[in-house]
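Q: I'm writing a short explainer about Leucine rich repeat kinase 2 for a general audience and would like to include a description of its predicted shape. Could you first generate the structure from this sequence?
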Amino acid sequence: MRVASVQQVGWSLLCKLIEVCPGTMQSLMGPQDVGNDWEVLGVHQLILKMLTVHNASVNLSVIGLKTLDLLLTSGKITLLILDEESDIFMLIFDAMHSFPANDEVQKLGCKALHVLFERGNNVEVLMSGNVRCYNIVVEAMKAFPMSERIQEVSCCLLHRLTLGNFFNILVLNEVHEFVVKAVQQYPENAALQISALSCLALLRSFPGICECIVNSLRTKCNTSLDIMAAVVPKILTVMKRHETSLPVQLEALRAILHFIVPGMPEESREDTEFHHKLNMVKKQCFKNDIHKLVLAALNRFIGNPGIQKCGLKVISSIVHFPDALEMLSLEGAMDSVLHTLQMYPDDQEIQCLGLSLIGYLITKKNVFIGTGHLLAKILVSSLYRFKDVAEIQTKGFQTILAILKLSASFSKLLVHHSFDLVIFHQMSSNIMEQKDQQFLNLCCKCFAKVAMDDYLKNVMLERACDQNNSIMVECLLLLGADANQAKEGSSLICQVCEKESSPKLVELLLNSGSREQDVRK
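A: Of course. Here's the predicted structure. Afterward I'll give you a sentence or two in plain language.
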């Protein structure tokens, strides 16, 4: 063990063997539960001892970390290493600290730490005290700015630390500056971009971090608008370069959300200069094709709910921009949103986002070009499925009212898909329970729009009678529905009497002009 040359040759040969024949790994673990008898150690114990004994040798540190990198591809060996009394984390930090100028040591050390952090629970300890692993990682990024592999692995490791909720420590130590530099230096590296954007998006939630990120991007800024103007175009560039990579698109959308979705500062709401600057930033986003890129991601990765939610949120945040509606329409935004709603009928968040967006995207043209039936079906289906979710009901009815104002004939499609049953339920329950007057007013407006058509009014009266819904029957009769209508030779009042279930309905129909002779039959 103490002869360096033997260790060098032995571990080098073992690395070659594992690379050529990965199946060898299983036989390297050695016997279990044998205590600390060094004569019968498994490979996981041997590597720890070698790194301990030869910690002053750069060559053995390199070959040791290379072997460790291979061993960590085995989940079982990784767990065995973590279970040992020897602290693998401290051994890696010791090697990285001892040989800061060796790119192999730094690269392999960062890579091993990333794997071990995924499985271990020592992150809290390593982020504090004398260790402070982020310092070692940042030093590696500083020392080897032109090593793409070191930058990539370091970003992955820092992303892991941000997931561990160590935002404050990382921000105070300006870790984000080095992440931003890596993003700029290696735009084609998908793995680096994913980790770096995720890291920046998470760090973004801390006060002051936006200014720091933008300063790192060499911009002079002190407002959220300057941050958005500087950062979002760079994220969009990443999306363009990696348009077929699902992870990159997802993390890019998440990062965009962190920059452009937070609300307007209170003190800026009455500031005309602020609004002027905001419009300039929005125009710049569209010049960078934000709408095209987000819609492309929605269409390409329709099977990923994360991308769908982020994408819909981004579109919702830009749909009010000047000329946005026209540009979104040209790119088929309505079809994309409808497709998403079709694919995720049970996802409450997606349904709420989608229903709200339709209200903004709808035009007379896209109601009449073949989407009308599908649109009505999706709206009614969502309202029926989430009949007790107030937000979806409000968004859905608001959207329906907006469409009815554009096209009165849309009411026929709604009733065809049983919208009247949805509206009966909501109006009846709100009238009885007096829950939400504002929502009830919204329902009444939609109901009045549909009831403007005499044929639909009579259809709804018949359905309300079928449901014994005296509240809606009374409403429809007051709006002029025909109490004497007949179906297959049988008058409406006769049908009600045959059921013998609601004297109230009979009374309402008679008071509204139903012929008494029909009752006597």
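A: For your explainer, you could say: Strands lie at 486-487, 490-491.
Q: Perfect, that's easy to follow.
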